[in-house]
Amino acid sequence: MNNIIDYILRTALMLCCLLCISTNIEAQSTTLKVEITNELGEPMPNVQVATVYNQEWKLSDNSGTVSLALPQGAAPKEDVRIGIPTDYKKQSMTYEKGHILRIVLQYVGNMLKGELLDEDFQTMKGKSVRIEGANMGEPITTNAEGKFEVSLPKEVRFSVNLDVFVEGYKLDKETLRYDDSRKFLRIIYKQPVAKTYQREEPRQIKVADTVQKNETQEQQEGVISQDSGLVMPDSLYGFTEDFNQVLNEIELEKQILAERGLQIRQELEQVLLRLTAQPELSPKQRDSLGRYVERLENALVANDVAFEEAQAKTRAVVNKIRHLIDEKDSLNVVVTQQMKNEQQQARKQMIILASVIAVLLILATIFYLFWRRIHRQQSQLREVNKALELTKDELVDKMGEINRRKEEVLIQSKNLEKLNSEITFQNQKITDGIRYAQKIQEAILPVPKAINDIFDAHFIVYMPKDIVSGDFYWITKIITQERKVYRFVAAIDCTGHGVSGAFMSMIGNTLLTEIVNQKHVYEPAEILEQLNEGVKASLRQEESVNDDGMDVCLCRIEDIKENQKLEVVFAGARRPLYYTEGEGNLKIFKGDLKNIGGRHRNSRFFENKTIHISYQDTLYLTSDGAADQNGVGKPKFGSRKLKKLLGEISCMPVEKQKEAFEQVFQNYMGTAEQRDDITIVAIRPGAYQNFE
Fold this sequence. Notes:
alpha+beta; five-stranded antiparallel beta sheet; 26 strands
C-alpha cells in the first residue's frame, strides 16, 4: 500500500514539473478575403461578417469585401458567420484558392406566390407560367398542387396590368385574381379552343380583273354592305317564342357573322399581298385597290359590330331566363314558407296541449312518489335509531383501541425517523469518501496542458457511470539513452465500475508507470505482458478466486524524420485501434483476444502491429462503454455505428470533433440510463520538436 501511495505522489510531482516547464505555441493565422454579392453579381456593402474565434463583427465596404483573420487549418465555410440582411437569404458559399470566400445572397423580399386552376377550379400541375418582369423573364413550372413562386425585382410590384402567359398563351385580365395583402395571384386558365364548324373556301381575287372594274362594279362585287347582316326580330326581345329556338337562331347568326368576317380578312390579306408582290401596277390601279381595301376594312368593322350585338342578344336572353327562374324560385319559396308556417302553428298548438296534460300527470306522479318516500323514510329512521343505540357502546370500545394503536404508530414513526437520520448520515459519509476518491483518481489522469505539450491536438470524452470510474487514460513521453523520443498513449477499461473499478484503475496506472518509466520497457507487447503479470500478482489471482482484469489499447509513437512520417506500434488486449489514413479514410487494427489479469490460463502472447501515418492523421483509442450504450427503445450503439461516426467526424478539426461526437451520441442515448464508463481518446500526434 505504501508503494502505491509513493507511486501516486511521484506521478503527481512529475505532472507538476511538466506544467511548470511547458510553453505555449502561438497558432499561425492567415488573412481570409470575403466577397459578398447578390444573385445579380452586384456587391453588397455594410453586411456584418465575423468568425467563431473572436465574434468581432466587421462590415463589408462598398465593393462588398471584408478581410478576416483565421487560424491556420481553420475551415472558412464552417468558421465564418454572416449577419444576413432583412429580405435576403444565403444562396451559396464557395471557398476558392488564394484564401477567398465568395458569398452570394438572394433577394426574397418581393416574392409572389400563386396557383393555376382550370375552368372547373381544378389544380393544373406541370404548366409553364411567365409573368412580365419576373424571374428575369424566364418561365416557371407549377408544382404537383398547381402552385408556383416567383421573385420580382425590387422596383417591380405586381398588378393585373402586367402581362401573364400560360403555355405561351397571353391571358385576359379577367382571369387574374390578385390579393395584395397576401401577395397571392390566382389564375383561372381557359384553354383556347379551335372553331369546329365548316366554312367555304374564300374566292380568289384577280388583280387584273379588279382594276378594270369601275367603282360601281367594285362596290357590287367586292364589298359587303353594312346592311347585309341579320337583324333580330322584335319578337325575340318580347320572349314570346321558345327560349331554345331563340338561342339557336342567335348562335346561327353568330356563326354566319364569323364566317363572313373570316372571308373578309382572307380577301383583305390577298389584296394586300398582291399590292406588295406586284410593284408594276399603275397609280390608278393602286388607288382603285386602296379604295377597295378601305371598303373591305369598313365591312369588317361592321361585321364585328354585328357579332358583338349578337353576343349582347345572347346575354340578354340568358339574363331573362335567369330572371324568370329566380321569380319562379322566389314564388316557390313564398308558398313553401306559408305552408311551413301553418304546419308550425298547428304543431305548436298540439305541443301546448300535450305539455299541459303531461305536466298534470307529472305533478300527480311526483306527489304520490313523494308521499311514499316520506312514509318509507320514517320507517327507516325508527330502525336506524334502534341500531345506533346498540352500536354506541361498541364505538366507544373501538375508539379506545384506535387511540392505543395511534400511540404505538407514533413511537414507531419516531424510531424510523431516527434510523433514517443515521442512514442519511452514513450515506453522506460514504459519498464524501467516494468524492475524495474521485479527486485522487482525477489527479493521476493527464491534464490537458501536459497532453498538448506531447501531441499536436487532441480531445477526450471521459464519462464515468458513477462518481469514480473504472476507465482511465495514460499518456507519457520517454527520451531514451539513444536520444529517441517515444510518446505513449493508452486507454484502459478495468473490470466493473464505481469504487471497485476505481481501485483497479489506480493499480493499472501505477503498474504502467513502473513498467515504462522505471523498468524502461518500451515495446507495447512486452508492456502488456508485464502489466498482465503485475495485475495477477497485485490481486493474488493465482491463489484466490479474484477474476478482475482490464482491456487495454496501447500505442507507441516515434517520429521518422527521413520520410516525414510517424511510426505507430500498437498492442491491444481485447481493444482495437482506430486511425485515419488521409482525410475521411478510417481504418482499424484489432487487438489480441487476450485480456490483462484474471485466473484463466492463456498461452498466447501479445503482438506488436506497426503502421506509418502522416503528421495530420488521427488515432482513436476507446473503451467498450460507447458501443455498449443503448438509447430509449433502441438497441446498443454498436461498434459499427461507432466506427461510422468516427469516420464522419475525422474530416473536422480535432477541436470540433468532440462537440460533434457528443451531440450525435447524446441524441441517440436520450434519457436512457448510462450502462458503463465511457472513454474515447483522440489524438493527432503531429511532429514532436521539444526533445531537449
